[in-house]
Amino acid sequence: MRIAFLGLGHMGLPMARNLAKAGHDMVGFDVVPAAIDAAGAAGLAVADSGQDAAASAELVITMFPSGRHVLEAYRGSDQTPGLLAVAAPGTLFIDCSTIAVDEAQEAAGLAAAAGHRALDAPVSGGVVGAENATLAFMVGGSDEDFEAARPILETMGRRVVHCGGAGLGQAAKVCNNMILGVSQIAVAEAFVLGERLGLSHQALFDVASNASGQCWALTTNCPVPGPVPTSPANRDYQPGFAGALMSKDLGLAEQAIALTGVDARMGRLAREIYREFADGEGAGQDFSGIINTIRAESA
Ligand code: NAD
């Protein structure tokens, strides 16, 4: 299948490489020359522009930083035609970027109005998952488009879940990451409280990991060194999942909370806590490094 892959950053390049490895006829593009060079060095064919890549493709995958990038690329500007304008009728657009639910629905609406098909398919699993083709995809769109995309997504990932109509892949992502942000803070607070009460890290871990406090933030991403040797705490909080990305995702959760009027106080508080963390030293640290802020802020 002829696939245009636009956005060859930390995630996009390894994803595109996995599709090329599976034998697809790939063409990539990125607006940053260094990313184009890296793609060329990795053996990926690159186009002169996103429009050139999209015009010749049956499938267009985007992996951009934010919803603004996706909507601008789909729409184009006064000077530049959008991807939707140059693609052959009926092209399938799959946006794998993490963007707001309403932006994803707007993108899908624009694609449909231009005579195309569209899915939102954000991922979890990070750069390691992108490299090893073990990503999880959360997909929003029609049954038919989902079935058409499934084999392509399965080439880049291990788990592909159809979450419902347009935007519901992003909805699943935002809800999952809100759970994650809140639970990582709760686990970090519990460890700091345990320290103050004289409880060893290992004792708290041994109890909570086998009791009702058990969760991924504890048993995989344990915020103290020792109990889980592979967690970022053992390597000075190198990500992992960076504080800047958690802050971004909780910002999308905050938008969704405002849109729906849900009384999500924990989600809003986690958004505040991670915004401060990412504005300070935490942007490039794993988000479990929030434990150091909690320690520092404690009396
Ligand atoms: P990144 O910044 O490394 O890559 C994005 C790339 O898109 C950049 O190279 C940028 O130049 C390019 N780009 C922007 N506009 C473009 C356009 N119009 N045409 C072509 N290229 C364009 O970001 P990333 O870490 O690869 O993340 C991509 C998306 O995946 C984000 O939405 C992020 O939230 C999400 N995500 C990232 C991770 C992670 O661990 N990095 C995990 C899950 C989800």
UniProtKB/TrEMBL annotation:
Q: Which GO terms describe its molecular function?
A: 3-hydroxyisobutyrate dehydrogenase activity
EC numbers, comma separated: 1.1.1.31
Which pathway does it operate in? Amino-acid degradation; L-valine degradation
For this UniProt record, the keywords arranged alphabetically read as follows:
Branched-chain amino acid catabolism, NAD, Oxidoreductase
Instruction: Quickly give the catalysed reaction.
Output: 3-hydroxy-2-methylpropanoate + NAD(+) = 2-methyl-3-oxopropanoate + NADH + H(+)
Instruction: Please report the stretch or stretches of sequence annotated as the 3-hydroxyisobutyrate dehydrogenase-like NAD-binding domain.
Output: 167-293
Ranges where the 6-phosphogluconate dehydrogenase NADP-binding domain occurs: 2-164
The enzyme's main class, written as a single word, is oxidoreductase
Q: Which domain of life is it from?
A: Bacteria
Report the sequence similarity comment from the record.
Belongs to the HIBADH-related family.
Which PANTHER family does UniProt cross-reference here?
3-HYDROXYISOBUTYRATE DEHYDROGENASE, MITOCHONDRIAL (PTHR22981:SF7), 3-HYDROXYISOBUTYRATE DEHYDROGENASE-RELATED (PTHR22981)
This protein's name: 3-hydroxyisobutyrate dehydrogenase
Biological source species: Microbacterium terregens
Organism lineage reads as: Bacteria, Bacillati, Actinomycetota, Actinomycetes, Micrococcales
Which gene name does the record give? mmsB
